[in-house]
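dude i think i finally got it to work??
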Amino acid sequence: MKFFIAILLSLAFAMVMGNASDEAKEKIKAANQKCQGDPKTAVDKTTLKAYIDSKGTAPAPENIGAHALCVSKELNWQNADGSVNREHLKERISAHVDDASKVDEILNECAVVKDNEEATARHLFRCFYKYAKDHGH
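look at this
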């Protein structure tokens, strides 16, 4: 695993959708690299690895909200104004989940606007990770 550890955040969504296509994996990788390349949105890889390995019990990297928001916007999960792009998320989920009620369940639980756009992005990642774990991905 030579990719940035932070890509694990992005892969959570891909995992809940099953096996991501090569194109989707490249989009995730490119989004992560772009956000890691900007000092305003980069996260410390060592701290992030410890956070992920601890399943969220260790302190989160200082810039995790900004990084999550950057990746989320790059993947079109959130619009430029930080609002949730429900239509895009539903389309992506529907491409991999056949049961319409399950699609709606995931969308309604994950695509929730929080106190600010960074909190919304963090919620999206945590929620998609939960569904990835629930489905053994």
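The mean pLDDT is 81.
im so relieved honestly
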